[in-house]
User: Fold this.
Amino acid sequence: QVQLEQSGGGSVQAGGSLRLSCVDSRYTYSHKCMEWFRQVPGKEREGVAGIFTADGHTFYDDSVKGRFTISQDGKNTVYLQMNSLKPEDTAMYYCAASFDYCRRTRGASAYTYWGQGTQVTVSS
Assistant:
């Protein structure tokens, strides 16, 4: 059973950087699709960046391309490096995992396991 534990996040001024971490603390099966989502009140959860851990293929939403970088450390830790942050990046961020092959962002319903969420606040 996958258990995702998130860390990182916080508050930063526009233009700053933050890094989020997501650790699968129980299960290290290598073929996982892991994706970072974000959600603001009243809106659906949206995918921002993902990775297929078996081969390291990454994918991004257009809104974060060139600013966010998803990476992995081994098969059970995924990071989201967020640079050049904007106020519109303010949201609760969640990592998600599923035992699927993936090449592009997918909807939240495609994922089985979720982290607890971490708040990112960007002030102007």
